[in-house]
């Protein structure tokens, strides 16, 4: 699936919604990811800590981003992330919006293949678990910007 | 309703401090009541002067008790103890025969709207908690300060009512931790004092002022001595003590690096006359620690504290006291109601927490680590400290630079421990064993510094 198909990426780069999940209060991950994305030339809408599902969905409907980045480190990211993408995908306008998730997603350290598979089956284009490093994420965003990410 | 005697938190810490013991405390919370009780019992049995902790889960912190109840019903493990979702009788049974005058238990949560949590802990017979209208709102939620402040005021009022039963409720300010890292010490000290003044304004008579270990031990010592001076000045009529948090930023991943940082925190606490230390574990860099890891951390910290003395006199004064004083006085000048004054201070940028994304934070102040590992202001926005701090740097912040600052402590302590292992291996291969330390964890940068 070519997520960026049919949408011209402007000179300002991708429009990215950057968000945590509703129960997660951490923000350093968001502060750093914003700088990373901005340095790659993209526009970031940083929703901050503890974003309620409804706010996240309404911001996506308003902004129609090229990419949604979900970052969570409190150990609830797997459960909250699954719930979140189901809500996003229930809106036809957001059915094809690329979404990725990363961070510390479970309370027992990097998860098993099954949790990753569940997240991708639910619609996440990529899962960047703790320890993956930034390069894989940067490379995904780079491919998306030139319309190649899948 | 009868209130079981679960012990006075402030009194326990004061007695330990007088007898020269550093009180150590874990962060610990699991959703299963039997397991929570086992964790408290293990803490109580640790070879240390310890107090117990029940850390709440993220759903409860957010007031999302429906999700917490659903998780309990579905048998999903949470990242803490859902004190509101559990029946008060369940929590009482967790505490029964465990909490008492010789083992007080504190509820740690992180909520900007703790009223239901405070009601639940009171129902369970407890009266010690922590947080604050600013420190649990700005970094950890998107709730407006205008809502968090009155909610915290009502929560303090609820706790203060317990004084009529003979209990002495205790509230610890989390203000010394803002964002965990990269907040310059002057602002941390000021926020800790301001929140304790807020608790006092709402009837609390036993408080603790926090300070989270940062990146340079000399700077931390100066900050703690400034905090002590300011607490003596501003809180003359309440019971107070200082609590140090072991480093709250990105944590070392090597076991020796993690232990070295914890030992450094314990020595910092004793040196600067703090009475209590919240520990971190060797698992901190990866996941929520197990009980055994927590107990090991308590004992490591207690041991490190034992061999250390409180320093008399002053540290080198680089201006932390003056900076914190200027911030405190600027807020107090905004009016007699501290809650309203705090809200105004943030609106005007008189208080401005670097890198805090909360909509009520001005977000104009920025900080950085200098080449000696000291936290400095990069820009001060509207903070009323222009005359106190020197000229600020205006270098551009990059992701790489920020990541390097965020991982400075992790790298420093992990590198020291890896270097130690390398030397141990090379010493061994060359046949020379004279120099080897039987415990590589003792040779953290800090240990070398104080040796």
UniProtKB/TrEMBL annotation, chain A:
- Domain B12-binding as annotated: residue spans: 13-150
Any one GO molecular function term:
cobalamin binding
- Name by which UniProt lists this protein: Methylaspartate mutase
Q: What is the lineage of its organism?
A: Bacteria, Bacillati, Actinomycetota, Actinomycetes, Propionibacteriales
UniProtKB/TrEMBL annotation, chain B:
Q: What is the lineage of its organism?
A: Bacteria, Bacillati, Actinomycetota, Actinomycetes, Propionibacteriales
Q: Which InterPro entries match?
A: Cbl-dep_enz_cat, Glu_mut_E
For this protein, the record's Gene3D superfamilies field holds:
Methylmalonyl-CoA mutase
> Which UniProt keywords are listed?
Cobalamin, Cobalt, Isomerase
Give the signal peptide range. none
What's the short name of a Pfam family annotated to this entry?
Answer: Met_asp_mut_E
Q: Per the record, which residues fall in region Disordered?
A: 421-451
The species this protein was found in: Kribbella soli
- Please give the name of this protein: Methylaspartate mutase
Protein biosynthesis is among the record's keywords: no
Annotated GO molecular function terms are: cobalamin binding; methylaspartate mutase activity
One BP annotation, GO:
anaerobic L-glutamate catabolic process
Keyword Isomerase assigned: yes
